[in-house]
Amino acid sequence: MCYLTYAPGPPIDEFVDYFWLFEGGQTARKERIVPSGTIELVINLRDDEVRIHDREQPEKHRRFSGAVLSGTYSSIFVVDAMQHESMLGVHFKPGGAFPFLGALASELSDAHANLTDLWGRPALELRERLCTVSSHRERFQVMEEVLTCRLRRSRKGHPAVPIALHVLGPAGTGALIRDVAREVGMCQRRFRPVFAAQVGLPPKLFCRILRFQRARTLVDQSQKLDWAQLASTCGYFDQSHLINDFQEFSGLSPTEYLRRHQPDGRLKSNHVPIPG
Predict the structure, then answer these.
(1) Which residues pair with 51 in a beta bridge?
(2) CA angle (169, 105, 138) in 5-degree steps
(3) What is the pTM of this model?
(4) Of 198, 7, 211, nearest in space to 101 by CA
(5) In whole angstroms, what is the distance from residue 175 CA to residue 239 CA?
(6) What does the alpha-carbon distance between residue 242 and residue 255 come to, in Å, rounded to a whole number?
(7) Phi, psi of 109 (to 5 degrees)
(8) Strand ranges (DSSP E) for the chain?
(9) Three-state SS for 42?
(10) Is 201:74 a contact under the CB 8 Å cutoff?
(11) Are 71 and 108 in contact, with CB atoms under 8 Å apart?
(12) pLDDT by residue (tens digit) across 216-256?
């Protein structure tokens, strides 16, 4: 199995966290993907399809083309890990996908979309180029080149959103939403749709997901956990508040999550195996 990541250079690094490439990671199981607060572009280099399964009935699924955009989710969705034979992805920074979409991020919230529906023919050409080149380095270079070209022709987002993301901080606890709105010179009523249009979620829900992600990361890194201390560290009012958010965003209690999310080289970040 091969799992590689690549950090692109300027100007793409302002918008993209990293590219990733997964080869030989297929396994006969379903996996939950928990919300991350951002958008991801995924290209299946083996088969010209991506299957997204129903969270309540994982045996049911929807088929998309081999190049698909995963919008900003506020809950889990389910994938078949047999698709991980050869996949390349772009993990955007929060709000970073907006210049490349050709649509509002809020229009893709809690949904997947075929890249062809947003880009047209260039989406097909991108997948064809990625499937044609043979080396990992070339694939990352092709993706970086295509995004750089698209950025030159993209529409600009509202300047308040990057400022707001900076003030909120990586864990979403940097300031209250009303204070952030005041910081960027907007009323809360106006700030919410502007933020959601570029990030894909309302600011309060986005901050909750960032806080959950911080807690999830600390759970992954810790052997012995004091749940009350973890809740306080991550900005939760109390332990029950932490448990409620874990249940909402992962479908699992923190204890269940810890039991299921064991180290596995075939498991990507934000993926949790579904037993059986």
Answers:
(1) 63
(2) 85
(3) 0.94
(4) 198
(5) 21
(6) 12
(7) -60, 135
(8) 2-6, 16-23, 30-33, 40-44, 50-53, 61-64, 67-70, 77-80, 86-92, 112-114, 271-273
(9) strand
(10) yes
(11) yes
(12) 988 888 767 788 898 999 999 999 999 999 999 999 888 88
Please give the DSSP secondary-structure letter assigned to residue 75: S
d(CA 37, CA 269): 13
- Nearest one of 22, 47, 49, 86 to 269, comparing CA atoms: 22
Peptide bond into 11 cis (omega under 30): yes
List the helix and strand counts (H, then E) for the chain.
Answer: 11, 11
* Amino acid (1-letter code) at residue 179: D
Report the 10 Å Cβ neighbour count for 17: 18
Query: Which residue is it, tokens 């509002």?
Result: 104
Cα(205)–Cα(134) distance, rounded to whole angstroms? 41
Element (H, E) at 202: none
Instruction: Please report which confidence band the pLDDT of residue 190 belongs to, taking 50, 70 and 90 as the band edges.
Output: very high
Q: Compute the C-alpha angle 22/24/30, nearest 5°.
A: 80
Token pair listed for 161: 């959103």
- Token look-up 């570029």 returns 198
Residue type, 102: G
